[in-house]
């Protein structure tokens, strides 16, 4: 049995199919249910597939009408060899009873929970950690200690260039830099510094500058020849912006055209001038006036010159800054690790990273040709012979590096159990967790990454969307505008529903367009949307509030939209990625509790003015006067 990749667009019955695959594995191999591990991305998805598996098993073993359809679906779409005879039904009945009485042994978990299991089983004992906490908000609390330890006098000189950059001249921007280093720390594990020492960089920078001067000489000589041939004023034949920059260095009114190349070479190799004007030289516009001077060879020479200048700037600026950032990152992460293992409070990202890092530690594992061998992994892969991974397009490279040793062991067919397989389900269109390191190419390139033959299946019928919407989505994802996406191969999705649906696309930015729209801030744009789209559809009954969702990318945007909906008198339920304690119906409870415990009058004021109470200013004034 080859590993299986199931491509499943939204609404095509992904959870339904995955739960049927679970049942098929039980019957095909006559295995215990705890030999199957199902990995999902969210707790909600975990609950959904757990419920679906139990429900489908119940329907099948009780031979209900729904159960008969499930059996037919397995036979037609997954395994035609299954007959669902009395022996097979009795087996499923036994499995179902065992699952009912041992629900905790059913292995369905989120990726974070699975990685946490590995961390607890092998990494934590290695570091003598017997107890630890998970707190995804803790990093903001330890930043002051990180600052205190890295911003000592002897380090400030090393970080001076980073601190003085225009984009990082206040504490908030520097904090974003530090948090970015922490959140993306796994990238530093893959940086090869063997060819990036300062001496090597200086040599390569000098080589790049020599090449730039060589290309510059050829280009300027050719440009001078064209100017002489044209016979016009030099200033008229050069691009206007470039002439303005050169005015302080060159008097065009007295310039001898035969000296043009030499004079320009002197200016364009002056490092201070290059440092201030390299963006002009690298711009899409030509250095010369294209309407007066046209020459294909000149264009090719200029493109080559720009490439050589870019190479020089890469060594002179980009790599130097990179080394400074890597040095800063090393100091930050050293302090960060000390704090983490001292306090034993980790984020889920910490757990993933430390699992990845120490998994490949020779003291814990034997790394043989890229394969990781240790007792824990051997035991894990012995107990688990089938892995089903949901939303695989959101798996990060870090998480894949943790999965891979076990998956390779399972699919190898070698060991005490000669059966095992991997089934992944995903949809590259739904790769929305790039901010957490989700890598869609793990799905699209699964066969080459796993280095084994893989079978593919596609769920191509949507049971959720109506045809008008589905047709629009098909056109969108087959559009030539998506040709820029590498390895984009879209399969059209059919629709099980015969009619209905609605699509309306309104594009609106915040800038003013004469005769079209005024300049508005985000709150204004959201209010315009509510007035022009939401309220009319609610009033006419075209949309049902219970079936309507407003999706936004950031919590801050959701907060602004919620304020607009409040002003419009529209009821809503706000779901954000933040803590439940920050929900507008929960925070007031904390305000009143603090008032009752600490007798802090300001907490009472916060409670009375909260969204839960909404006390009027006049009534609030009466309360204040009484106190």
Regions with little confidence, pLDDT below 50 for 5+ residues = none
Largest sheet: 6 strands, parallel
Count of structural domains: 4
The fourth-level CATH homologous superfamily of the largest domain is P-loop containing nucleotide triphosphate hydrolases
Overall mean pLDDT score? 85
CATH topology of the largest domain: Rossmann fold
Instruction: List the strand order in the largest sheet.
Output: 3-2-8-9-1-10
Number of contiguous helices = 25
Shape: globular
Query: What percent of residues are in strands?
Result: 5-15%
Give the class from helix and strand content and strand pairing: alpha/beta
In CATH's first tier, which class of the largest domain applies?
A: Alpha Beta
Describe, in plain words, how this protein is organized in 3D:
With 627 residues, the chain is of the alpha/beta class. The protein has four domains: 4-116 and 354-459, P-loop containing nucleotide triphosphate hydrolases (Rossmann fold, 3-Layer(aba) Sandwich), CATH 3.40.50; 137-346, no CATH class; 522-578, no CATH class; 581-626, no CATH class. The protein contains 25 helices and twelve strands. The strands form four sheets. It has a six-stranded parallel beta sheet with strand order 3-2-8-9-1-10, with helices on both faces. The chain has a two-stranded parallel sheet with strand order 4-5. α7 (153-163) packs antiparallel against α14. The mean pLDDT is 85.
Describe the protein's topology.
Layout: E1 4-8, H1 14-29, E2 36-40, H2 43-61, H3 65-77, H4 86-101, E3 107-110, H5 111-126, E4 133-134, H6 139-150, H7 153-163, H8 171-183, H9 198-230, H10 234-237, H11 240-246, H12 260-268, H13 271-282, H14 296-343, E5 345-346, H15 348-359, E6 366-368, E7 371-373, H16 375-383, E8 386-389, H17 397-412, E9 421-426, H18 441-444, H19 446-450, E10 455-459, E11 461-462, H20 467-477, E12 494-495, H21 522-539, H22 555-568, H23 587-598, H24 601-608, H25 617-626
Parallel strand pairs: 1-9, 1-10, 2-3, 2-8, 4-5, 8-9, 11-12
Antiparallel strand pairs: 6-7
């Amino acid at each position: 049995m080859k590993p299986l990749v199931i491509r499943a667009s939204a609404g095509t019955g992904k959870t339904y199919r995955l739960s049927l695959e679970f049942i098929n594995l039980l019957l095909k191999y006559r295995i215990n249910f705890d030999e199957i591990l199902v990995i999902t991305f969210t707790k909600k998805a975990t609950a959904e597939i757990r419920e679906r598996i139990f429900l489908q098993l119940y329907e099948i073993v009780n031979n209900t009408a729904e159960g008969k359809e499930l059996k037919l679906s397995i036979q037609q779409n997954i395994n035609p060899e299954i007959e669902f005879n009395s022996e097979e039904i009795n087996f499923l009945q036994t499995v179902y009873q065992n699952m009912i009485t041992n629900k905790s042994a059913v292995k369905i978990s989120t990726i974070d929970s699975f990685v946490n299991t590995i961390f607890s089983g092998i990494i934590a004992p290695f570091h003598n950690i017997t107890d630890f906490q998970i707190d995804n908000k803790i990093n903001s609390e330890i930043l002051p200690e990180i600052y205190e330890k890295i911003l000592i006098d002897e380090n400030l000189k090393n970080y001076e260039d980073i601190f003085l950059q225009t984009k990082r001249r206040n504490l908030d921007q520097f904090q974003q830099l530090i948090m970015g280093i922490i959140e993306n720390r796994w990238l530093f594990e893959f940086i090869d510094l063997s060819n990036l020492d300062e001496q090597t960089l200086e040599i390569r920078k000098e080589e790049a500058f020599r090449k730039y001067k060589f290309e510059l000489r050829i280009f300027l000589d050719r440009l001078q020849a064209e100017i002489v041939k044209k016979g016009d004023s030099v200033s008229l034949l050069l691009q206007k912006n470039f002439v303005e920059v050169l005015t302080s260095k060159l008097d065009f009114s007295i310039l001898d055209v035969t000296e043009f190349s030499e004079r320009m070479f002197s200016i364009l190799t002056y490092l201070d001038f290059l440092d201030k004007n390299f963006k002009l030289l690298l711009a899409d516009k030509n250095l010369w006036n294209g309407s007066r001077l046209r020459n294909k060879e000149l264009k090719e020479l200029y493109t080559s010159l720009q490439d050589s200048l870019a190479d020089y700037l890469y060594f002179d600026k980009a790599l130097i800054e990179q080394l400074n950032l890597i040095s800063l990152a090393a100091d930050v992460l050293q302090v960060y690790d000390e704090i983490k293992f001292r306090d034993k409070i980790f984020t889920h990202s910490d757990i993933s990273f430390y699992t990845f890092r120490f998994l490949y530690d020779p003291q814990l594992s034997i790394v043989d040709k890229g394969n990781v061998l240790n007792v824990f992994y051997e035991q894990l892969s012995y107990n688990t012979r089938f892995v089903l991974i949901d939303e695989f397009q959101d798996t990060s490279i870090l998480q894949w590096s943790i999965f891979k040793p076990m998956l390779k062991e399972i699919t190898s067919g070698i060991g005490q159990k000669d059966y095992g397989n991997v089934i992944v389900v995903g949809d590259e269109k739904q790769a929305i967790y790039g901010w957490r390191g989700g890598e869609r190419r793990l799905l699209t390139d699964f066969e080459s990454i796993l280095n084994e033959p893989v079978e593919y299946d596609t769920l191509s019928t949507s049971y959720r969307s109506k045809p008008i919407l589905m047709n629009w989505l098909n056109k969108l994802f087959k559009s030539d505008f998506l040709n820029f996406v590498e390895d984009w191969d879209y399969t059209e999705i059919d629709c099980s529903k015969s009619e209905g649906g609605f699509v309306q696309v309104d594009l609106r930015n915040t800038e003013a367009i004469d005769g079209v729209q005024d300049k508005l801030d985000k709150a204004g744009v959201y209010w315009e949307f509510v007035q022009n789209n939401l309220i009319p559809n609610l009033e006419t009954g075209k949309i049902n509030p219970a079936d309507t969702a407003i999706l936004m990318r950031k919590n801050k945007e959701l907060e602004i939209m919620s304020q607009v909906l409040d002003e419009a008198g529209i009821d809503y339920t706000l779901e954000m990625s933040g803590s439940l304690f920050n929900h507008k119906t929960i925070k007031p409870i904390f305000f009143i509790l603090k008032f009752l415990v600490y007798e802090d009058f300001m907490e009472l004021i916060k409670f009375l003015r909260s969204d839960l109470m909404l006390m009027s200013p006049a009534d609030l004034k009466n309360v204040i006067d009484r106190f």
